[in-house]
Amino acid sequence: MLKDLDAGSYRLTVVANGFARQDYGTKLPSVQGTPISLAVGQTLRDIVVRVLPTGNITGRISDENARPAVGVTVQLMRAIYNPNGQRTLQSAGQTRTNDRGEYRLFWVTPGRYYLNAGPGVGLVGLRLSGAGDSQNGFQESYTSTFYPGVADVKAANTIEVQPGIELSGIDLRVARQQLYRIRGRVIDSTTGDRPAAVSLSLASRGIADTGGIVQTITQSYNPSDGTFEIKDMMPGVYGITAQTADTMALGLPRTDGPPRPAASAAVTVSDADVNVVLTLTMGVSLPGRLIVEGEEISRVSGLDRVRVQLSNVEELFTGGFQRSPQAQPVSPTDGTFREDNALPGQYRVAVTQLPPDFYVKDARFNQTDVLSRPLQFSGSVSSPLEVVLSARGGQLEGTVTDEKRQPAAGVSAVLIPGQYRDRADLYKAAVTDQNGHFLIRGITPGEYKAFAWEALEPFAYFDSELLRRYEALGKSVRIAESDMSMADLKLIPLTQ
Questions:
Q1: What pLDDT was estimated at residue 319?
Q2: Among 279, 271, 269, residue whose Cα is nearest residue 241
Q3: Which CATH number describes the domain made up of 394-490?
Q4: Which residues of the chain have pLDDT under 50?
Q5: Which CATH class is domain 182-280?
Q6: How many whole angstroms separate alpha carbon 102 and alpha carbon 470?
Q7: What pTM, to 2 d.p., does this model score?
């Protein structure tokens, strides 16, 4: 019993050893619950929070000769998604192997995870510490490996942790780490010669699919011949960025001053040294034009909030140093816009803040479709980026009911495209009201499947593995322009 609380809004969380941390008002341990409002003098009784017992994972990590890999970091990673469908991996706990190569991850929240074994931060060259003499032993360096024995997380299998169950025998074999070099040359595109002063930066992607450690490596640059060399690189994906500098007092490439010539590249180090050429170029303004099908753009309200945004495909791999262009407002009179400081590269096109019932019908650059594939920009502009909007987006209306045929309030009805599932703009969702009713507007015409989950982590419907699991429970719908389609959905229980 909680006594003597001031009036106000509270979140109630239950924490107990051996059970998953759970908020009141949600059925998922990893999702924030709903607040409890408490008035002056009010007493709330019979508050129920159901908790799940946690699971455990045990296994053994061995080297290529089947000997114990000692002191290796073993880490659990869970996939999370943002509103744009981009996935990152979030650490959900880690441990290190003992002298037998054994590990144990305990009190794991039920769910699906990736398991990784390999180098941890600062492990190379450290002596081991343990129950015995800490002077006896030396920390080996091993390659990063995902279960069931792959280097790339895209080829890894997920591990399903069930409540109260111990998963044993989750074993991995890791290889000793070899180190390599990245050599390169920097060229100024305006002169064709080496620049006198360059700021070089290196970003490591890391095992979590995100930009990792970023460090300046300016000392690696030789201004006499424009070359650089980076030693002792572990296999992985790196982003290298070069930018001209005014002085030798060099810092990070991002500055508040005017843009300077720059170049970035994603480099994969696998089993050999790598060579790369970075050609410095100035960002340019990429022009564009927004067209509203069948309407004078000056008569369309709400376009002042619309932005056409270009996101650099390689930005994730270069630690954010490969900057995306700056989107400028759309002219309300003729629909023109521009993307400032655009550098050569690949970009995804997205249109944000669309008015209700609008959808993106077409987007072309150099007569090439850039909705279903990245925009390829060479650095020179021969024609503007043309984006066509239509005010004739489809609608989907319906009701979600549970197994007792009662309205399900406060759940998300989600519309998933049948094709082009890599296009985040085609995914639509709406929350049901107290009567279980939902309305989704501005739908691009096409074939879809509609789902309604009792509980789902935010934006988890972008997970292709999860969709395969529930594919048969979705309701197929076809959306046409300006159409109001109907679909009553059955709630997918949390247990399925």
A1: 44
A2: 279
A3: 2.60.40.10
A4: 121-129, 131, 133, 209-213, 247-256, 316-321, 496
A5: mainly beta
A6: 35
A7: 0.78
